[in-house]
């Protein structure tokens, strides 16, 4: 009954039907006079009705806050209070209601709810407190015993020290590690490897550089090293034995190498072996007896050379190369040791091996030992593309990408001719090596550079990006998407985007529950990683850039935004609450190769060059736009703006992170929000449509950013000045009138470039590679698709 | 130079060089978490110290496995073992399989055997597993059937592209009970391989 009425009331709140809300609450009060729930609900409705008039301290704080007079243990009431305080951004109070309830009426169920809520909030301090409370009850839930909660407490405490040290008082820094350590010592003997891992983690992370704790770790893990193989224990062993005990390190490494092949173990075996006075030959023979002939066993000879002679010998290098010169790992392996290898010796040795293999050639090329250029290498090895298994990747892509990057990877804007030439090369190559993603990602990026999103989308589909992978890959396609291809009927937005959003909508929401299960199932070793993962997904750049784009798309398409903004606020609040780390850039920039530096992207990748300032300021721009019609002050928004700007010059931030048009758009809304639009006319007069870019992604981006801004301004009833209104409307009209001509010109430009490919510079290169030039039709057709999507807005 | 390390949830952000491979499955987040939660020791990765220090691609491969079955059928099962293109053909998959064997052939797992499923037409993989000591125990008819194919109605109709070999490697404690010399002749339905 309560649940039904509650559901009704929340529906009514959403519709702002407050009168009916109060009527329903009165029924609840009458039916359940002894419950606190109707009282809290009534307060909540009052708050929702007029948040600015709500007197927090008088209405809520003095009753249910930290020093409030009422303590409740009702599950629904605690839940509602948690929600209420969270919405007010009093996150500490939100959990304190549980703490208070537990202090007055302690029970296992209540402390368990407290733990669950703290986990939901990523509040590790409360998780630690709640789990300690749970350990006080002999009868726990299911198969759990009271001692288990000391391990929950230990993990929560480590998380607190790892991720939220700023949340700790000096006293807590001193006491909590000691308390956690003591509690775990009382749980000895440990019953599983997972328990040993928690204990070892407490010693390692809460008592850094404490030798006695390293000894504690070794004492616990040593018995397990004999009869089991655990990778965490291996790491603890390697880290904590220390250089003063080479005997133990050597024997443990030897023991483990009997079971697993691991380079860390090999390295420690070598260093401890040298300390013990063993010779190079003794170590080589021992390793050969422990391991089968493998990459590690050959590479460790380079390491042995370094440890004993500080230089790598020809013999060891030859031994490695004889087996791996034509394996793709070779260049990666040897580049790691490049400072210790004589380049001439390496060149001489590698050239003594059969050079007919494309992988051998690609290794030479990657190690910059090449005598030929990438075109010559490609031509020498292109026939191998005909012989390979379809799903294999050809090392020929190394040469092709070198050609592509030399054409397009520049600090300044590349020539459209060079980009189209590079696309021609990649399209031809992709036909021969269809599953090669190294080349495909560049093809996608170059199509995006040209503003041909539908073509980029089609190639992106080939990558089959899905599930958690979307968070690290979608920036290729969905950076600035609302101003590049806002076609809502296209699968780009209608199908793929919502499918990929499920990661944040459903999976991210389920994470607290899954982490909770990890505690219950005692998968202790994985929990810190899961907590970190959750925070990184919550604060993911990709997630937030998509959210800001969604809000801009809604403005551009005149869609309703209330629900969208409500969600944006809820998500923003979550991020504000979890004061863990800063934003998390999970975007996989390495996918473009080792030479791409995220902080110095070449101009051709400019469309995806969105930094934290860009993401945060665009979110705040949407909040400003929300506030402008009501002309209401928002202290929270002001505080957020202040925090992002952080004593820097706003204009400088905008110039370095935004395009010129994005910069103008932000300044326009900022002026309206913070300056009552004093400079609005000047800003509108600043617009010079003749200066809009004539092609590439910038054509669509500038056009649509401008249009979205003007349309939003046009919808503001607050702007009443006739001249201003007229200026907005005429700008919209002029911009729209110019749309077709702009895209027609771009089509002509691309057609011209494609024709030039057949007759000028590009022809020579394409002919050398035996590739066909790109036909203009395909490009022009897709410019038209983009144009149609845009001109209807 | 490969070290074997426990797989952490945050590694899921760094798997593109492995998982963009056309033959490698990208599972839902919950599936990866299921393995992290239920079999934390049996989800691990190979890490390369050779890669560029700025690179996000130091993971060269990973193993997802589980333990299941009762009594004589207590075993570990390889769910996924995969290696990125740059580190292929250097026996890295074998190294991951050997590591799993070392882990589950000892305390606290002490399995009787390890098994895996492989498409009957994946000759390359079958040869790799045979080299590692696995042999065919039975043929699972229609194991890789799509929804359109439906559930197999008979064991008589075989298809190398749709059927799987259940391959097993017995540990010493199994005393050969889960090994068949004529495994390819033994056929079963997909529901029979659930433990």
TrEMBL record, chain A:
Q: Record's GO cellular component, any one? A: NatB complex
Question: InterPro entries given for it?
Answer: NAA25_NatB_aux_su
**What's the domain of life for this entry?**
Eukaryota
* Homology family: Belongs to the MDM20/NAA25 family.
| Name this polypeptide is given | N-terminal acetyltransferase B complex subunit MDM20
Name the species this protein comes from: Kazachstania africana (strain ATCC 22294 / BCRC 22015 / CBS 2517 / CECT 1963 / NBRC 1671 / NRRL Y-8276) (Yeast)
From TrEMBL, chain B:
Q: Does the keyword Transferase apply?
A: yes
Annotated keywords: Acyltransferase, Transferase
Record keyword Acyltransferase present: yes
InterPro entries given in the database record: Acyl_CoA_acyltransferase, GNAT_dom, NatB_acetyltransferase_subunit
Which residues are in the N-acetyltransferase domain? Answer: 2-158
Give the record's GO biological process terms: ERAD pathway; mitochondrion inheritance; regulation of actin cytoskeleton organization
Mind naming one GO cellular-component term on file for this protein? NatB complex
GO molecular-function annotation terms? protein-N-terminal amino-acid acetyltransferase activity
Pfam families in the record? Acetyltransf_1
Q: What is this protein called?
A: N-acetyltransferase domain-containing protein
Instruction: Identify the gene encoding this protein.
Output: KAFR0A05340
